[in-house]
Design brief:
Length: about 120
């Protein structure tokens, strides 16, 4: 059902965009008043405006209903966890209790200096 609604939403949105782009703006009415050939169209001089505006209104209403239905369906779903949240914490490397120093770097044992009698 979810996939069907998503596909329907995409198709209705494409149809809505197309219908809006097909409509004439307010400036087109002034050109039609001086005989720009609007009376010879398929829908007549005023028929296309009514058809396109009604089709746009129907597509817009359908788009809102499908979008709200999708939002209602997704409402209870939980977002997937982040990869960072699902990773196990990294283990710290084991540290020895006493530091091990190589023989070359170890300081030489302190020699006792002989005491000179006075």
């Amino acid at each position: 059902m979810y996939t069907f609604l998503v596909v329907t939403d995409v198709l209705v949105s494409i149809a809505l965009i197309g219908l809006v782009l097909l409509q004439h703006g307010k400036g087109a009415d002034a050109g039609a008043a001086f005989g720009s050939g609007a009376s010879g169209t398929v829908f007549g001089s005023r028929g296309s405006a009514n058809f396109l505006s009604r089709a746009t209104a129907v597509c817009a209403a359908l788009f809102f209903v499908v979008s709200l239905s999708l939002a209602y369906m997704v409402q209870g779903r939980r977002a997937p966890d982040s990869i960072v949240d699902t990773m196990a914490p990294a283990e710290a490397p084991a540290t020895p209790a006493t530091p091990v120093v190589p023989a070359e770097a170890a300081p030489a044992p302190a020699e006792e200096t002989p005491k000179i009698p006075e």
